[in-house]
Specification:
The chain is of the alpha+beta class. The protein is 25% helix and 24% strand.
């Protein structure tokens, strides 16, 4: 196995003193016009003076679908600024823009009582008189924050990736052994940030059953900043875009409350009366969603009264129902229009697996680098930060996926559990649906705890149940088995009222009551016990709101249980041995996670010696933002804090902060109390969000939701009341953090926060605001970190969501037998830093090796090209289109605050070590305290329905787990 001492990043930064300008045509939108639109939008708002901007999300979506050449750089029209908002590489015909903007203006205030005002505004705008002007845009323009972080010109987040994509489109097609890939541009919205390049026509893969699947290469460009660095970066992400063709009896499945992206390519311009020479080579992007009122799929911004119905199109968009029922037909083009629906994991399995291995990523990256302008260079390769971490090869002989726990390990499990239970027995329950899952569950529990011999069996006080008992020298174990029966069925929503909040609440309440009635009483000592609960696959629940998981979580909590769910798997076309292996793995993972909920979780030994104070405690903050369109039908904010004291006894080793009592409580008690915050309101919420939108001046709640994942994304607040919900939540977070910090002052503390999770409500964590060794809580003065705790260290981590950290691969060279230098690339585990950085460098990267289903896949695996292989003395060629690619993401570790005599690398090394969970592989995605805090959020959001429609490509291993039923 090759050990790499450097990793290469797919990231690019301006060279010192470099400049690059790109010509764009811009359309001025005078302040007078903006004021007209703001006054129109304010009509009917309860607090019109609190609204300071006009939301343009719907117009941006219309431009993305029908005028892909136009680049929009704003989410809001700010009345106080006159900067251009729309950019294009060539002037767009006035008729195009006038038609689209007029349609959008009518949509701003579609109410009958405002028709006269709308007509007046349209008459005064006179868009046809606004000329396009040509501007030279400096692409490397940036300033610096007080903390020394680069602050690019805001419009560059769209324009710089767009300009780079345009250069790449001028390259010769990408060539690989056996073929070529030709790329096209894709229209993007400001919320999407960045640019996309898509290979077209799509590649075709035929599986062993003769079924055809379509897929394309996807290159994504985004502009990012790095804390305390004066230069920004452009990140390139190489992946695969899979196209949906798998239909059921009702066509393609569209996840609830989520839209599906549709890539559109037309032979002629969409808008009527526009010269055919204006046909765009870029993909337009539309979005399909399921309309609950119409009970049909529809184009967003469309429908009987939507914006699309007011436009005269040269050619109509595909009918949603036809596109859903015949997606493959539209993939190959029909009537001058090509439409490709993006596949999401929730639509089911796909014959092409997600992700790309370095064998594809490296050549694609090199091809793109040929388009880089002078002055934009790849960032230096990162080197190992091993001043404290031993530079040794990790032993791989112990394969965590197949090895059985040894005697000492299982005995330690039992001792830890007995200590956690203060000498009492371990009583757990398994409510099962299918006998194979039940038997696998019993076997997995016995294996994990080293329970030898046949258990003692006796009837249980549950329907069709029995209790299995084992006794060891350390621990007595009682496993109560029973059929779950009708508890796992649909919630039984009335057909006529299936979308009403009151009906959902009533169904949840009924199921909770039935759970309590069916289960034996809770433990008399007040401690929570564990119930493993098998339920049907989510496809069995129609509508999706009838999924009983949320109700069962609350019902078991009422009965004094924490819960871990096992999903009854779908039938998978894999070998029986693979199904059995996946089933065993799944049940072992379920028991492990169930024990975690009881507070039984091994804490890594950092191995850094006495340089880390022996009484150091670890703490983590996680913010749960519950959406109003979720199962509770109520928006809320719940801060979660976890504290780990490695040297303490099991009952107090892992605790959570109870904000009501201001005390640290055992982890299982925290979960039970968090479930109380998921209680349903006693009266109906309004089914329509219009009342809240009118009160706050926010036209579309998704603008706020989507901005949370964008770095420094405060643009959504242009239309908010400063005293609105976001402001209230920020103050609540500041109060909670202050209380938590005060409670941690008694000993050395490492506090961890997650950038993408916390920065919207703790703004100081944003790259543009953070400063070394300082801290600021919202609404309060910035101060030195040591004033909050004389031995406090603050770490901010950031993962690859939104391509905020770059793709990477291990990089090296070797000399071949004929004396030539050969480039090597692969995947490496380690902590990394920039070469030649000063000893006080604050930003590090943490990576893991291959793991999970992708462990045995070659780094040279390719979606497109045949490759040679040698295995077990046999040689041949293969292609890996249907193989799972697993590329661990790079976790950025920023030592935001430490003490004056600290070495930041030491605390980065400790954070890296906290990902190395004992006896488990792969490493955790986040350090253990953050991992536990994020998992606790399941008790505030006890549902899987808020998953992303289009998961990150680095999460491609999720696909196989879906297919085998390992997760849901």
């Amino acid at each position: 196995m090759i050990r790499y001492d450097t990793i290469r990043l797919a990231g690019y930064a301006p060279a010192p003193g470099a400049e690059w300008t790109v010509p764009y045509y811009t359309l001025p939108f005078p302040q007078y016009h903006r004021k007209l639109l703001l006054d129109l939008y304010r009509l009917g708002l309860k607090r019109p003076d609190d609204c300071r901007g006009v939301p343009v999300k719907r117009l941006n979506g219309l431009l993305q679908a029908l005028a892909p050449e136009v680049v929009s750089v704003a989410k809001w029209l700010d009345v106080s600024r006159d900067e251009p908002w729309l950019y294009a590489r060539r002037p767009v015909p006035q008729d195009v823009l006038s038609t689209l903007v007029h349609t959008w203006v009518r949509d701003l205030r579609p109410e009958p009582e405002h028709r006269q005002a709308v007509r007046k505004v349209l008459n005064e705008l006179r868009l046809g008189e606004l000329p396009w002007g040509r501007s030279e845009i400096p692409m490397f323009a940036r300033s610096s924050t007080r903390g020394g972080t680069a602050e690019p010109d805001e419009r560059l987040y769209q324009l710089l990736p767009d300009a780079l994509a345009e250069l790449a489109l001028g390259l010769e097609p990408f060539r690989y052994s056996g073929g070529t890939l030709t790329f096209r541009g894709v229209a993007r919205r400001p919320n999407d940030r960045g640019a996309e390049l898509l290979s077209w026509p799509p590649d075709i893969h035929q599986d062993r059953d003769g079924r055809t699947w379509w897929f394309s290469a996807l290159l994504t460009l985004s502009l990012q900043t790095v804390p305390f660095s004066p230069d920004f970066r452009v990140h390139l992400r190489c992946g695969v875009r899979r196209w949906a063709t798998r239909t059921g009896k009702n066509g393609l499945y569209f996840p609830p409350r989520r839209s599906a992206s549709v890539y559109l390519l037309a032979d002629a311009p969409w808008i009527a009366d526009i010269p055919e020479s204006w046909a765009s080579a870029r993909f337009s992007v539309g979005r399909l969603s399921y309309d609950r009122e119409l009970r049909a799929r529809r184009w967003e911004a469309g429908g009987p009264d939507g914006m699309l119905s007011r436009l005269r199109l040269r050619q109509a968009l595909p009918e949603p129902e036809d596109l859903s029922s015949r997606p493959a037909h539209w993939l190959t083009g029909a009537g001058g229009v090509t439409a490709a629906v993006v596949h999401s994991t929730m639509m089911g399995s796909h014959g092409v697996r997600g992700g790309l291995m370095p064998g594809d990523r490296v050549p694609l990256t090199k091809w793109f680098e040929n388009a880089l302008p002078e002055g934009l260079v790849r960032v230096p390769d990162q080197v190992r930060a091993d001043r404290y971490l031993k530079a040794r090869r990790r032993a791989r002989e112990r394969d965590e996926e197949t090895s059985e726990p040894d005697v000492r390990e299982t005995a330690a499990h039992r001792r830890e559990m007995a200590e956690l239970l203060r000498g009492g027995p371990l009583r757990v329950e398994f409510l099962w649906l299918s006998e194979p899952i039940r038997d696998a569950g019993v076997k997995a529990l016995a294996t994990m705890l080293g329970l030898e011999g046949e258990p003692v069996r006796q009837p249980a006080d549950m329907s069709d149940g029995e209790t299995l008992s084992w006794r060891t020298s350390e621990l007595r174990v009682e496993l109560r088995l029973a059929r779950i029966g009708e508890l796992a069925d649909n919630l039984g929503l009335p057909e006529a009222d299936r979308w009403k909040t009151s009906a959902l609440h009533a169904a949840i309440g009924n199921r909770r009551d039935r759970v309590v009635q069916q289960l034996p009483g809770a433990a008399t000592d007040g401690r929570a016990t564990l119930a493993l609960v098998e339920i049907h696959h989510r496809d069995a629940y129609e509508p999706r709101s009838a999924d009983p998981k949320f109700a069962l979580r609350l019902g078991f909590r009422d009965a004094g249980r924490v819960t871990q769910f096992v999903v009854n798997p779908r039938k998978a076309k894999v070998k029986p041995s693979e199904v059995e292996k996946a089933r065993a793995k799944k049940l072992e993972a379920c028991w492990t996670d169930g024990f975690r909920q009881l507070g039984h979780r091994a804490v890594p030994d950092h191995g850094l010696g006495p340089i880390i104070p022996a009484d150091t405690q670890y703490a983590a903050l996680w913010l749960v933002k519950r959406r109003r369109d979720g199962p509770t039908r109520r928006a809320d904010l719940v801060p979660i804090a976890i504290r780990i004291r490695p040297g303490e006894a099991a009952p107090t080793r892992i605790t959570g902060w109870d904000s009501r009592t201001g005390e640290w409580v055992p982890y299982s008690a925290l979960l039970m109390r968090l479930a109380e915050s998921a209680e349903l309101p006693t009266v109906d919420d309004p089914s329509d969000l219009a009342a809240e939108q009118q009160e706050t001046g926010v036209a579309d709640t998704e603008d706020a939701e989507e901005s949370e994942d964008a770095e420094d994304g405060d643009g959504s607040e242009q239309g908010r009341d400063r005293e609105g919900r976001t402001e209230q939540h920020r103050r609540a977070v500041a109060d909670a953090v202050q209380e938590i910090l005060f409670s941690l002052r008694d000993r050395p503390t490492l506090l961890l926060a997650h950038a993408q999770n916390a920065r919207q409500l703790w703004p100081w964590l944003q790259n543009g605001r953070i400063e070394r060794d300082m801290i600021q809580l919202h609404g309060r003065r910035q101060q030195r970190l040591d004033l909050q705790g004389p031995r406090l260290r603050l770490i901010r981590v950031r993962d690859n969501a939104g391509t905020e950290t770059p793709q990477w691969w291990g990089h090296g060279e070797r000399t071949t037998d004929d004396g030539k230098e050969e480039e090597l690339f692969g995947i490496a585990t380690g902590l990394w830093k920039p070469p030649g950085c000063c000893p006080l460098n604050r930003v590090f990267g943490s990576t893991d090796g291959k793991a999970g289903p992708g462990t045995n896949l070659s780094v040279m695996a390719s979606r497109w090209a045949l490759r040679a292989y040698a295995r077990n003395g046999r040689t041949g060629t293969t292609i890996d289109t249907d193989k799972l690619a697993w590329n661990p993401g790079l976790l950025e570790i920023t030592v935001a605050g430490c003490q004056s005599d600290d070495d930041p690398e030491l605390w980065a090394a400790l954070t890296h070590r906290l990902r190395q969970s004992p006896r488990r592989a792969p490493m955790l995605a986040l350090p253990l305290p953050l991992h536990l805090a994020r998992k606790a959020a399941e008790y505030v959001l006890p549902t899987t329905q808020d998953q992303l429609t289009e998961p990150e490509e680095d999460d491609a291993a999720v696909q196989l787990s879906f297919d085998l039923g390992v997760i849901a």
